[in-house]
Amino acid sequence: MNVDSQKKCIYAYVGRRTTKERNARGLGINVYCVDSVTGMLLFIAILSLKGDLLC
Q1: What are the φ/ψ torsions at residue 5 (nearest 5 degrees)?
Q2: Which of 6, 18, 36, 51 could cross-link with 26 by S-S, CB 3.0 to 4.6 Å?
Q3: Which residues have C-beta within 8 Å of that of residue 39, sequence separation ≥ 6?
Q4: Cα(44)–Cα(26) distance, rounded to whole angstroms?
Q5: 26, 17 in Cβ contact below 8 A?
Q6: Are 17 and 45 in contact (CB under 8 A)?
Q7: Alpha helices in the chain (DSSP H)
Q8: How far apart are CA 38 and CA 6, in angstroms?
Q9: Backbone φ, ψ for residue 6 (5° rounding)
Q10: Are the beta carbons of 10 and 52 closer than 8 angstroms?
């Protein structure tokens, strides 16, 4: 992605809920930039959260 395409970035937040009983392996919510011109995904970060979160 170049600087111009980042101006057209749409953020996508992807994650799933897991529990200790199901051998939780989730690291948090993944943040991606979706280039609105090319549709390409660019990984930005993982948001690590403690406790439950409902989005």
Answers
A1: -75, -25
A2: 18
A3: none
A4: 17
A5: yes
A6: no
A7: 3-6
A8: 11
A9: -65, -25
A10: no
The structure tokens listed for 46 are: 């993982």
Residue keyed to tokens 């199901």: 22
CA distance 34 to 8: 8
Beta strands in 1-55 (DSSP E): 9-14, 29-35, 41-47
pLDDT digits (tens, 9 = 90+) for 1-55: 555 544 678 999 988 766 777 777 777 788 999 988 888 999 999 887 666 655 5
Question: Which tokens hold the place of 4?
Answer: 């111009």
d(CA 52, CA 35): 30
